[in-house]
């Protein structure tokens, strides 16, 4: 990956790959997953959080040794246990459900997912005995010429009987090309001890594609994104151009909403019904009600009620709260501020640390001066207030209900309800001054 970052933390559609694997397991009914960590383990723990248990692999001595590192965490567990690598982000709950069903039906101690590949280079080949039973896995580096021609391969996704797994893991040999304990050797260990080994065949080999470089990461992103967008379409969402629409895992979008081209919706977002999002819109960690329109805008940490219109070119930052039928228009920035029902800021404004009442109107060029160099201060604008264009509101300050602030004013004192505030220099008109000035300049230039 050419990175200082642990590979398992690279994100696919907004989620670390290791999390996607764990979610697939849990979707199949697995209990709290155990993540085996080693190099940069603290970083992995910090990213994945408390939803997982962790087991340390202090020395990297192979995949078998990694699995054995989880033995203490699962010492009291008696039942089937899934094992998979943390860099296979396209796995689904259905994969693990099929694997578990096959495992239970056969009463096996080891069941491994297998696929057939036209080019099996790099994969462990499934070796069977004369009766067709799987007896071992031949890794690429250790396989004979004849074994390398086998197209049936192990994709390193397993279901084990927990007691059998942790009983036999310590016996795995390191007598191989890499001098490591291979988890694939568990197949031979289980079969050799009289246990039952089964395979579960999958047609969709792409589900098991691991990520070992940035290009494979991009391909995984594309595949998972298409899966997410297809699910949305099946649920009644219109995606105008899937090739340029990016939706993260966990995003909820209501029926009859339209996602226009160049729309990117990150994790933690919930969008209601009958909305129109985009084109060229980015939404992160935000909630939108029904019938909202967001056009060419950036939303991060915003909350919109029903029937809100936003954009084009609006910037809603964390703490922006827009109530029903409010409007934020072109080149308006809102941060830690709320707009009441039917309030409007249609153009060219900065509304930071402000509370704006219902049906208030904020004119073009209005600025809330909220920072005094030491702390943020709030601006309060009452219901039905009218703030004229090019107004500067020096916080802390309030404009009362129904008050009018004349265009071009600099307001530093509270404005009472239903009052008119004018704070600007008096206009002076000198008739014919301009023509006299031009004549004087022309005379000087001769």
Automatic annotation (TrEMBL):
Q: Where is this region: N-acetyltransferase?
A: 236-446
One GO BP: regulation of cell shape
Q: What is its EC number?
A: 2.7.7.23, 2.3.1.157
Which positions fall inside the Nucleotidyl transferase domain? 4-207
Which GO molecular function annotation, any one, does this entry have?
magnesium ion binding
Q: Which residues lie in coiled coils?
A: none
Residues involved in UDP-N-acetyl-alpha-D-glucosamine binding: 7, 57, 62-63, 124, 139, 212, 317, 335, 350, 361
Keyword NAD found: no
Q: Which CDD domains does the record match to this protein?
A: GT2_GlmU_N_bac, LbH_GlmU_C
Main localisation: cytoplasm
Needed cofactors:
Mg(2+)
Cofactor binding remark:
Binds 1 Mg(2+) ion per subunit.
Q: Where does Mg(2+) bind?
A: 87, 212
Active site positions = 347 (proton acceptor)
Which sites bind acetyl-CoA? 364, 389, 407, 424
Q: Name one Pfam family in it.
A: Hexapep
Would the keyword Transferase turn up in this protein's UniProt record? yes
Query: Where is the stretch described as Linker?
Result: 215-235
Keyword set, alphabetical order: Acyltransferase, Cell shape, Cell wall biogenesis/degradation, Cytoplasm, Magnesium, Metal-binding, Multifunctional enzyme, Nucleotidyltransferase, Peptidoglycan synthesis, Repeat, Transferase
Quaternary structure (record)? Homotrimer.
Q: What is the annotated role of this protein in its UniProt record?
A: Catalyzes the last two sequential reactions in the de novo biosynthetic pathway for UDP-N-acetylglucosamine (UDP-GlcNAc). The C-terminal domain catalyzes the transfer of acetyl group from acetyl coenzyme A to glucosamine-1-phosphate (GlcN-1-P) to produce N-acetylglucosamine-1-phosphate (GlcNAc-1-P), which is converted into UDP-GlcNAc by the transfer of uridine 5-monophosphate (from uridine 5-triphosphate), a reaction catalyzed by the N-terminal domain.
For this chain, the family text in UniProt reads:
In the N-terminal section; belongs to the N-acetylglucosamine-1-phosphate uridyltransferase family.
Name of protein: Bifunctional protein GlmU
- Phylogenetic placement of the source organism: Bacteria, Bacillati, Armatimonadota, Armatimonadota incertae sedis, Candidatus Nitrosymbiomonas
Q: From the UniProt record, report the name of the gene that encodes this protein.
A: glmU
């Amino acid at each position: 990956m050419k990175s200082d970052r642990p590979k398992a933390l690279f994100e696919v559609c907004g989620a670390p790959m290791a999390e996607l694997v764990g979610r697939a397991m849990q979707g199949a009914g697995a209990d709290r997953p155990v993540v085996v960590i080693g190099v940069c383990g603290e970083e992995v723990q910090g990213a994945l959080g408390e939803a997982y248990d962790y087991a340390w692999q202090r020395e990297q001595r192979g995949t078998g040794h990694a699995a054995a590192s989880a033995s203490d965490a699962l010492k009291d567990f008696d039942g089937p246990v899934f094992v998979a690598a943390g860099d296979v982000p396209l796995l689904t709950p259905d994969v693990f459900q099929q694997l578990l069903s096959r495992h239970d039906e056969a009463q096996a101690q080891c069941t491994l997912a297998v696929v057939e590949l036209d080019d099996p280079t790099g994969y462990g080949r499934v070796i069977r005995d004369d009766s067709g039973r799987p007896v071992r896995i031949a890794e690429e580096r250790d396989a004979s010429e004849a074994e390398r021609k086998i197209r049936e391969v192990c994709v390193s996704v397993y279901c084990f009987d927990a007691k059998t797994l942790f009983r036999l893991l310590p016996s795995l040999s390191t007598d191989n090309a890499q001098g490591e304990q291979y988890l694939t050797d568990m197949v031979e260990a289980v079969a050799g001890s009289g246990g039952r080994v089964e395979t579960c065949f999958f047609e969709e080999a792409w589900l098991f594609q691991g990520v070992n470089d940035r290009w494979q990461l991009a391909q995984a992103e594309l595949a998972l994104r298409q899966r997410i967008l297809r699910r949305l379409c099946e649920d009644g969402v219109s995606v105008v151009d899937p090739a340029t629409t990016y939706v993260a895992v966990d995003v909820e979008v209501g029926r009859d909403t339209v996602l226009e081209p160049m729309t990117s919706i990150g994790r933690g977002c919930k969008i209601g019904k009958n909305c129109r999002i985009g084109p060229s819109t980015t939404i992160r960690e935000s909630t939108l009600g029904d019938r909202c329109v967001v056009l060419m805008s950036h939303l991060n940490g915003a909350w919109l009620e029903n029937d809100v219109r936003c954009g084009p070119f609006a910037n809603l930052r964390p703490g922006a709260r827009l109530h029903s039928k409010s409007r934020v228009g072109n080149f308006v920035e809102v941060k830690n501020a709320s707009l009441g029902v039917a309030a409007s800021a249609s153009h060219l404004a900065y509304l930071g640390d402000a509370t704006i009442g219902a049906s208030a109107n904020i004119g073009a060029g209005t600025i809330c001066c909220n920072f005094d160099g030491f702390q943020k201060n709030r601006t309060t604008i009452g219901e039905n207030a009218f703030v004229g264009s090019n107004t500067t509101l020096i916080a802390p300050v309030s404009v009362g209900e129904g008050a009018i602030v004349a265009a071009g004013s600099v307001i530093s004192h509270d404005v009472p309800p239903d009052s008119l505030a004018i704070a600007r220099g008096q206009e002076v008109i000198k008739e014919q001054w301009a023509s006299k000035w031009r004549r004087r300049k022309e005379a000087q230039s001769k």
